């Protein structure tokens, strides 16, 4: 049954699980949502989140948090840990991180938000021949939600980065949502040159200078100013090269070398800008931690594009349901 207290609200509340530094949350806050509670296990990420948001940020293992202490909200946000799904590393069906989404589903079951938005890596679609993804979708469906999902590339939404991610959007069944349109691709691509224009030269201590591994040298890591970046990863030593670096040269399959000149990775501030965090936002922790928080985040502009569509759909649905209620009908078609 529809909670009538939510119908006339213009600002929707949100709870965020596996929030990290808050890229997804920040994008939603820019589109009419207010994050009231967030959780992550990483202490530095939680501290970073607190620097920009007014949410109650609870740091700790979600499996050990009493769900009765988590507030109800209009929408649930979160990108549960993706390491077990990622194409970038070993993919194990029994990776314990693959089951953390169950706490996300538990919130849906116990708190019944109007909607939810989940984000994860492309590899989630194919792990175990798609069985894990199907299990996740089935779990969410069985909790009473109509689901929509699509693989989006962040570069199509003002993010200067090639970054494919699965976005899952669910609406509670009694909202009667039968269709949902994901954001359309934008006509113009934001390039590295535009994103990093007038960016000051970073300090040496803000750039990872770890040795370049054989994995790093197995493929090209440099994009030019008129292109978008390769994906910003969570591991500092795998961060792509700055466009000022010389082009890499291919020697043979899975083996490249640096060209002549000064080669360097993106600084953490540049990586944050490529993830479309606002300039000047501080990240708590040492250099490795900062890169990790940035690389694990949902690009803010991608989140903002999705949030705009979700906000529109909720308004459309609740306005219709308000009209139905005035006629004496609940949104699920049953009379009041």
Can you walk through the features of this model?
With 336 residues, the protein is of the alpha/beta class. 26% of the residues lie in helices and 17% in strands. A seven-stranded mixed β-sheet has the order 3-2-1-4-5-7-6, sandwiched between helices. The longest helix is centred in the last third of the chain and has 27 residues, at 300-326. The protein starts with 11 loop residues before the first strand and ends in a 10-residue tail after the last helix. Residues 1-8, 83-97 and 328-336 have low confidence and may be disordered.
Oligomer: single chain
What spatial order of strands do you see in the largest sheet? 3-2-1-4-5-7-6
Q: What is the N-to-C order of secondary-structure elements (H for helix, E for strand)?
A: EHEHEEHEHEEHEEHHH
Q: Which percent range describes the beta-strand content?
A: 15-25%
Envelope shape: globular
Average pLDDT for all residues: 89
Largest sheet: 7 strands, mixed
Q: Which architecture of the largest domain per CATH?
A: 3-Layer(aba) Sandwich
CATH domain class name of the largest domain = Alpha Beta
The total count of helices amounts to 8
Uncertain runs: 1-8, 83-97, 328-336
Distance between the termini: 9 Å
* Helix-strand category: alpha/beta
Q: Tally of extended strands?
A: 9
Counted up, domains total 2
Calculate Rg over CA atoms: 21 Å
Give helix % range: 25-40%
CATH superfamily of the largest domain: Vaccinia Virus protein VP39
Q: Which topology of the largest domain does CATH recognise? A: Rossmann fold
């Amino acid at each position: 049954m529809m909670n009538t207290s939510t119908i006339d609200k213009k600002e929707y509340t949100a709870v965020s699980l596996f929030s990290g530094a808050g890229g997804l949350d920040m994008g939603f806050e820019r589109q009419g949502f207010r994050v009231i509670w967030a959780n992550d296990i990483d202490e530095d990420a939680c501290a970073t989140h607190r620097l920009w948001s007014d949410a109650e940020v609870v740091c700790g293992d979600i499996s050990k948090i009493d769900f009765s202490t988590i507030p109800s909200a209009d929408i649930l946000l979160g990108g549960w840990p993706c390491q077990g799904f990622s194409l970038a590393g070993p993919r194990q069906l029994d990776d314990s991180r693959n089951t953390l989404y169950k706490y996300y589903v538990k919130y849906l079951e116990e708190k019944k938000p109007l909607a939810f938005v989940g984000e994860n890596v492309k590899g989630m679609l194919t792990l175990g021949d798609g069985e894990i993804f199907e299990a996740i979708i089935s779990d969410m469906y069985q909790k009473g939600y109509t689901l929509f999902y699509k693989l989006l590339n962040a570069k199509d939404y003002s993010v200067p980065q090639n970054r494919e991610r699965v976005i899952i959007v669910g609406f509670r069944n009694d909202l009667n949502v039968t269709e949902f349109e994901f954001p359309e691709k934008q006509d113009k691509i934001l390039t590295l040159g535009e994103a990093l224009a007038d960016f000051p030269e970073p300090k040496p201590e803000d750039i990872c200078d770890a040795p370049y591994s054989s994995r790093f040298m197995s493929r090209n890591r440099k994009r030019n100013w008129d292109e978008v970046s390769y994906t910003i990863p969570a591991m500092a030593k795998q961060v792509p090269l700055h466009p000022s670096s010389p082009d890499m040269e291919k020697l043979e399959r899975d083996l490249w070398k640096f060209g002549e000149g000064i080669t360097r990775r993106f600084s953490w501030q540049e990586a944050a800008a490529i993830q479309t965090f606002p300039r000047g936002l501080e990240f708590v922790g040492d250099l490795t931690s900062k890169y990790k928080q940035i690389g694990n985040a949902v690009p803010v502009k991608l989140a903002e594009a999705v949030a705009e569509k979700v906000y529109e759909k909720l308004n459309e649905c609740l306005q219709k349901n308000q009209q139905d209620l005035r006629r004496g009908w609940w949104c699920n078609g049953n009379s009041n």
